[in-house]
Amino acid sequence: MPQMAPLNWTLLWIFFIILYLFFWIINYYLFIYKPSKSNKPTKKKKLFWKW
């Protein structure tokens, strides 16, 4: 049990970092593609929130 606890913590931290980076990339992508096309970002946002 004590050996598994730090491993779970590290995995949790890695997961949070990946999630944060993923969210940042999506926001950046939507921010770039918003002025060119107004319909596509909303669809992507809906799909992201559904997932």
TrEMBL record:
Keywords: Membrane, Mitochondrion, Transmembrane, Transmembrane helix. The chain crosses the membrane at residues 12-33. This is ATP synthase F0 subunit 8. It comes from Cyrtotrachelus buqueti. The lineage of its organism: Eukaryota, Metazoa, Ecdysozoa, Arthropoda, Hexapoda.
